[in-house]
Design a protein that fits this description.
The protein is of the alpha/beta class. A hairpin with a 2-residue loop joins strand 3 and strand 4. Helix 10 runs parallel beside helix 11. It is globular. The termini are close together.
């Protein structure tokens, strides 16, 4: 990534002197290095079930260079990915030529889903929550991550990301989440790995209120209530940057009525990974300003990788497309966008 940025910078300098060796800056910059475009494999979950090897090969043929996998689980103290033993899944990726650079997983706690409308009108929130972290389940949570660290070392995956928000009712709940996140990040760091958190829209709600209350600036703070704060901000401010990073899902941040660009500027360097998503094929709706998102992400420092993701069964405006056809069109948009490195 850094070499590519240096190349573009040098090409710009050459252009200014009038000695750029043929072609535009973008043409010269694009020539030696192909973009490394990633994809979250959840995007083609149905086709993976039908033909795992063929579907992964199709991603490679489309032009995706690396993946963020879903489907890791622990059973009987053994890890697997979508039913495949770890060594078998790893070999399959190596044979195909797809690099596994990240993985989504979460502790096996009770889950609470609120799907909303992931495409089309964009109505409804999206939350994937798990039961509240407590002093009683804290040990089991950390034991899960210890096993996951070892399994992901075997898979050759250096990054783990949790995409599920623990249920939080008070600031005390939120404080415990941050403590556990920091401990999990420390486990990963000790193994030479990294650990982060992925949002949906639920994280952009306020915490610290008594149940059933709506916040207002005039609210009186008493011993029975807490100052109100957006949970996502609380997480960022109360986790160690050296232990916990954030993978922003830009679509769900917007659906949570927050601006990704504002967050990049407010917390520079905390967002090395992004999920690039739209209501339909990426870049086809005008719902998100991807140029501003990418340019600000690079400018504020830290943006290393991005992953295309489709959540809904099929793009709404192109319901006849297969999941693979849909992610190809999203790939092509990213590939031709000059603002994406």
């Amino acid at each position: 990534m850094q070499k590519r940025r240096s190349f573009i910078k040098n090409a710009t300098a050459l252009a200014a002197t009038g000695i750029l060796p043929g072609g535009t800056i973008q043409e010269v910059a694009d020539a030696p290095l192909a973009k490394k475009i990633g994809i979250q494999t959840y995007s083609i979950r149905r086709q993976l079930k039908q033909d795992m090897v063929g579907s992964l090969k199709a991603l490679k043929n489309i032009g995706y260079s690396h993946i963020e996998l879903y489907g890791y689980e622990q059973k009987d103290n053994k890890g697997s990915v979508l039913g495949y033993a770890l060594k078998d899944y790893r070999k399959m990726l190596v044979d195909i030529g797809l690099e596994p650079t990240s993985s989504h997983l979460e502790p096996p706690l009770q889950s609470f889903y609120k799907f909303g409308d992931g495409g089309g009108t964009g109505k409804g929130e999206r939350s994937i929550q798990i039961e509240t972290y407590t002093k009683d389940n804290r040990k089991a949570i950390l034991e899960f991550w210890k096993r996951a660290v070892a399994d992901h070392q075997e898979l050759g995956i250096p990054v783990m990301v949790q995409p599920a928000m623990p249920v939080v009712n008070t600031l005390d709940d939120a404080k415990l989440v941050c403590e556990v996140f920091n401990q999990t990040g420390e486990l990963a760091k000790q193994a030479g790995m990294r650990w982060g958190y992925h949002n949906h829209s639920q994280e952009f709600k306020r915490i610290g209120l008594k149940r059933g209350e709506d916040w207002s600036p005039e609210m009186e703070i008493t011993k029975d209530s807490y100052p109100s704060e957006i949970f996502y901000d609380f997480l960022i401010k109360n986790t160690d940057p050296g232990l916990v990073f954030f993978e922003m899902d830009v679509y769900w941040a917007v659906m949570g009525q927050c601006d990704p660009v504002t967050y990049f500027k407010r917390y520079p360097g905390r967002f090395p990974l992004l999920h690039i998503k739209d209501r339909d094929i990426v870049g086809s709706t005008g719902f998100l300003n991807f140029e501003n998102i990418f340019r600000t992400g690079y400018a504020t420092g830290g943006l290393e990788r991005y992953y295309v993701e489709h959540e809904y069964p099929n793009p709404v405006s192109s319901s006849s497309l297969s999941q693979l056809e849909a992610v190809k069109q999203s790939h092509d948009y990213i590939a031709k966008s000059a603002f994406v490195v």
